[in-house]
Design goal:
about 240 residues; alpha+beta; 2 domains; four-stranded antiparallel β-sheet; two-stranded antiparallel ribbon; about 20% strand; elongated
């Protein structure tokens, strides 16, 4: 995997504008993660995918992530910084392939959710409905005693155990940041989504770069490819020469 180059970032930004969050994640990784095919990337578990996205973000933009959150108690907006290494969970000691849980009389074999499963969910559906659909996609086999059962017949208590096992096996899929409000001392946890975070950075970077291309092309008559070929330092030097 290599850091995204300026022309690659612009292409990702342009192609990803009309895509869903899951499709954007796959597009970003497929551009930089040439060791795997797009199909193999799509089959990575959500946590494995997000771990690679976090590593790619660090290679492309650096390890520090500037974040903003709103305190749910006093509504004050907080600005804080985290390091990529601090939110990258250790690789779980779980075997590759399927997982199993046994609870009460139920035995369930399942696999971890991947991007293909997320893409099949309905964005308009409620959270509980999508959880049920995700379970349906990931369950390989389920039995009560010796009788096979469908996913709709799995009790809520067993589904909870499956969800807990999934979280333990793929912790990078659900990163929670522990925050403390300095104004009202309220403490809470907020989720960190590397897909939306990285996409917002790519959008901001692309917008800024296009302004630079426009300014330098207007001043010197250069083509876009010629401006992109300049290092960031030389590009900035030319911008300063034209008063920007």
């Amino acid at each position: 995997m290599h850091a995204l180059l300026p022309n690659e970032l612009l292409e990702v930004w342009e192609r990803g504008a009309s895509l869903s969050a899951t499709e954007r994640a796959l597009l970003i990784l497929a551009t930089a993660y040439t060791e795997l095919t797009p199909g193999q990337i799509a089959e990575l578990s959500v946590g494995q995918r997000d771990r690679q996205l976090l590593a790619l973000r660090e290679q492309t933009f650096g390890p520090r992530l500037d974040c903003v959150a709103t305190c749910p108690s006093c509504a004050v907006q907080l600005e804080f910084r985290v390091n990529a290494g601090d939110i990258c969970s250790a690789l779980p000691k779980e075997p590759d392939g399927s997982l199993e849980v046994t609870h009460a009389d139920y035995f369930v074999e399942f696999r971890l959710p991947n991007s293909l499963d997320l893409a099949r969910l309905d964005p308009a559906a409620d959270l509980e409905t999508n959880r049920e659909r995700l379970l349906e996609h990931c369950v390989i086999a389920a039995r009560c005693a010796k009788t096979e059962v469908t996913t709709t017949e799995i009790p809520a208590a067993v589904s909870t155990v499956i969800a807990e096992r999934m979280a333990a096996a793929d912790p990078q899929a659900d990163v929670q940041l522990a925050l403390d409000c300095p104004h009202c001392q309220h403490t809470w946890q907020t989720p960190f989504d590397i897909v939306s975070y990285l996409w917002s950075e790519i959008q901001a970077w692309a917008t800024r770069l296009l302004r630079e291309v426009h300014s330098l092309a207007s001043a010197y008559g250069w083509r876009e490819a010629e401006v992109l070929a300049l290092s960031p330092w030389r590009r900035q030097a030319y911008l300063e020469l034209i008063g920007l």
